[in-house]
Hints:
The chain has 2 domains: about 5-105 and about 300-320, ornithine cyclodeaminase, domain 1 (2-Layer Sandwich), CATH 3.30.1780.10; about 110-295, NAD(P)-binding Rossmann-like Domain (Rossmann fold, 3-Layer(aba) Sandwich), CATH 3.40.50. The chain has 11 helices and 15 strands. The chain has about 325 residues and is an alpha/beta fold. An 8-stranded parallel β-sheet has the order 9-8-7-10-11-14-12-13. The chain has helices at about 10-15, 20-30, 100-120, 140-155, 165-180, 190, 235-240, 250-255, 255-260, 275-280, 300-315; strands at about 5, 40-45, 50-55, 60-70, 80-90, 95-100, 130-140, 155-165, 185, 195-200, 220, 240-245, 270-275, 290-295, 320. It starts with a strand and ends with a strand. Helix 3 (about 100-120) packs across helix 11.
Amino acid sequence: MTGIPVVSAADIERVFSPADAVEAVTAALQSGLDVETDHERIFAPLAAGEFLLMPTETPDAVGIKVATIAPGNTRLGLPKISAWYLIFDAATLQPAAIVDGTRLTTLRTPAVTAVAVRGLLAADPGGARTEIAELVVLGSGPQAIEHATTLAAVLPVGRVALIGRTPDRVATAVAALRERGLDARSGTPDDLRRADVVVTATSSSTPVLGLGDVRSDAVVAAIGAHGIAHRELAADLVRAADVVVEARASAARESGNLAAAASDGAELAAPANLVELVRGAVVRRPGVPAVYSGVGMAWEDLAVVQGIMGVMRRGAAPEETT
């Protein structure tokens, strides 16, 4: 059997930057992709968490991410999400490569968020905003670090404040961001009220951010909640804001932020999706915040993997397995 390339986390780090991932996601959204018809994710419960299977395809490739989600791992100092990605030829369905899915996830999730944040800032009713003077991230894990890093890779970012429940983890995350050249520090709730952009990347299943916590023109990106029963945003913030989601179909299935805001019969305007945002079709209202609520979709992983494999084909090949 011909060896199948294995793309490690180190390979990804060597050939594909956060800015590359942002552009891969943007290109996919501009390509005519129909995000509303992407395959549904498949969840299977496990004693310590759950399996997550994410199949999708493009005209050139078929892929699936096999991930485990273990919420208790954060208390053990282990990754909450572990994964491998399998990519196949679209015509023959023969395996083309195995990609480290854990690093892929920490690369593509903030890339999608950065596309959303950049688009929402550009759509500001007071005029396009092209920088983030004050960034606050709620959370101190890998996604918190990578979100700050990725946003700074595509937009000028001034100060970064991290807010978390565990001071030692916050200090470690702040140190990691400083090593990457960001002006980072441990934050307080007062920082929220000054922030241009707030990212929630927590493991909380109950709201950590409400309407009264943020500026009236803030952009909020919520990416930590997984599943319809979990949410990071209070209902008043979601109800008041201009809302963008990856796709309306996936948000209806999986977004606890949106489900909770509509749970008592409140009327919620249909959110825009990322294709509409990237095409400039989203019009923001003055005097209200903007919210991006992400759940993760299969097309995002494949877009980034195809970008990685394109670079790999033009450069040094990864190791092979049989």
